[in-house]
Amino acid sequence: DWVMRDHIAEAVEAIRRQVGDEEVILGLSGGVDSSVAAALIHRAIGDQLTCVFVDHGLLRLDEGDMVMDMFAGRLHAKVVRVDASERFLGKLAGVSDPEAKRKIIGREFVEVFKAEAARIKETHSRHVAWLAQGTIYPDVIESGGAKSKKAVTIKSHHNVGGLPEQLGLKLLEPLRDLFKDEVRELGVALGLPAEMVYRHPFPGPGLGVRILGEVKKEYADLLRRADAIFIEELREARDASTGKSWYDLTSQAFTVFLPVKSVGVMGDGRTYDYVVALRAVQTSDFMTADWAELPYALLKRVSGRIINEVRGINRVTYDVSSKPPATIEWE
Ligand code: XMP
């Protein structure tokens, strides 16, 4: 629609004016906000933007390749992919406390990003002066309100405070005035696929908090495959009365890896393999949430496929806990 078109034209003008002929670095996570920010800034200044995509090895199945296909392949943006999975897994070895894992992942993320940004700053011929972030309006309120909000941190959500100063860069935040639904509309208008723009939220620490306790590559690989099956079936199953997919009817859905083994039977043999839990919730604000009443037929299909297709998992459970008192994530 032309209102959005106007908004894009205005935002593009504003970015060009602000940036001039200087260079911009942006941390691309594959999430909605950083993706839309990247697409918008790329529209404005093209190759003056370099995106840095830090792959911590705790992404979903094929997620890294999808991000690269989209931004490098389709938008022809400059994207540097940093494969840091071994570094992250190394730092996480032996650590099972959820908050400790979050801190490690957050800290390493900043370290890897900083090193890459510093490298780009040094090697670019033009002056790299800006760090772009996909900060949206609710983030602005949240951090502004944080001064008075002496609330207990139940889960430390890592955000990258102080990074621009440390890198000697100015902040570029073209989504600062927008609410989430406006960011999504903008993304679609910029040509990002609706499937990407309307994705469920995914936590910064990724699968690191969906593998209970110690994170291991073996667990992450099993979880990625199980979760991909769950999400694929949710996207395919439609609710008869609304015609919507169960993916769109839920606010967040994912699979959790439980590092316990249970007994099963396959053919003439006995198995002794891992358990996963499926989690699907409906919520408007993520502060409270109800577990989703997914159709039994859908749960049955998902469970059957995971157990048959993912060797190493022989039991699937469904989480029927609401928030509160349970949280949406298991860690
Ligand atoms: P909980 O589990 O607290 O989750 O009910 C509420 C929402 O926050 C997301 N979440 C996170 N997002 N870093 C993030 O970026 C985190 O450490 C983190 N922990 C939880 C969660 O996915 C849900 O959408």
Automatic annotation (TrEMBL):
The keyword S-adenosyl-L-methionine does not apply. One of its GO terms (cellular component) is cytosol. The keyword Nucleus does not apply. It catalyses: XMP + L-glutamine + ATP + H2O = GMP + L-glutamate + AMP + diphosphate + 2 H(+). Its EC number is 6.3.5.2. GO terms for molecular function: ATP binding; GMP synthase activity. This is GMP synthase [glutamine-hydrolyzing]. The chain holds residues 207 to 537 of 537 of the full protein.
